[in-house]
Amino acid sequence: MDIEDLVKSIDIVEFLSQYTDLEQRGDEYWGLSPLKSEKTPSFSVRSNPPFWYDYSSGQGGNVYSFVKVFHKCSSYEAVEILKKYAGFSGELGAGRQKLAAASVCKRFSSPKHTSKPSKGTVYPDDYMERYEKRDDKLDVWRKEGISDASLDRFQVYYDRFDNRLVYPIKNLEGKIVNVGGRTLDPDFKAKGLRKYTYYAGWGTISVVYGLYDNLEHIKKAGEVILFEGCKSVLLADTWGIRNTGAILTSHLSPTQMKLLLSLGVRVVFALDKDVDILEDKNIRKIKNYVNVSYIRDTSGLLDEKDAPVDKGLEVFQKLYANRRSYV
Fold this sequence. Notes:
Layout: H1 3-8, H2 12-16, E1 23-25, E2 28-31, E3 43-47, E4 50-54, E5 59-61, H3 63-71, H4 75-86, H5 101-108, H6 135-142, H7 148-153, E6 157-159, E7 164-170, E8 176-183, E9 196-198, H8 211-221, E10 223-227, H9 230-238, E11 244-246, H10 254-263, E12 266-269, H11 281-286, E13 292-294, H12 313-321, E14 324-325
Parallel strand pairs: 10-11, 10-12, 12-13
Antiparallel strand pairs: 1-2, 2-3, 3-4, 4-5, 6-7, 7-8, 8-9, 13-14
Helix pairs in contact: 3-4
């Protein structure tokens, strides 16, 4: 028996079930990552072909590579762990005294990519199917004016493990690169929970929420209206305003700036009332290349931390009609 035979002899699902509880969903098994602390399952295992992938850390491979990553051990130690599990006590490798560690690493470590490294995690297209469509939970946003059609269009679901409404965040190619969550816990402040959070680390935010879904409408209008949060995009969609997106924070990142420039359309910033876009250096830069305007409430229509959509369609239309050019 050699290392390849040893790996093939081990049922990957049974082996990895030692490290996390796995639940079958179609052809895959899912569980909480044994490599990172998390509340939402992002650890995927397939038996055919035998392969695991941890979306929270971006690592994957076979049982040998998992042992090395999880135990942070040498190639020799990883082989010994697998031998013990398989009940094999003999020598590995025909005609050889022992396996060369370097050779094992080369053959069974995760392959190195020769292309440019990924800028972030990309989730499977059906990733949101792990969550629930709970009408009683979605009522929280329905009561705030968001329609069922908009909830469906932007795939808003419920995460019972974390008690949050969840929604996919896609890049310009339509691939899911993160999942946003809005807590439904009324005591979130006392418990130190964030009202809005993201299930994967961002680093620098490089996408604009809703841009992929609304791209056709943005190009047709020749303009994109940018909010801070995803809920504003859903409210606008409910009102039939679909040339919108959300930057998911109060400041424009350099990557988002480049993304917007590639569209070649007018940009209208409709950020929360307490944000002064004139202080944003990246917005100052983008105005040199495309037409930029912004919404500013000078009539007391909004409360201090309101988004421009929070007081309803009529107020938003007034604010939009009185938008200012940024020159």
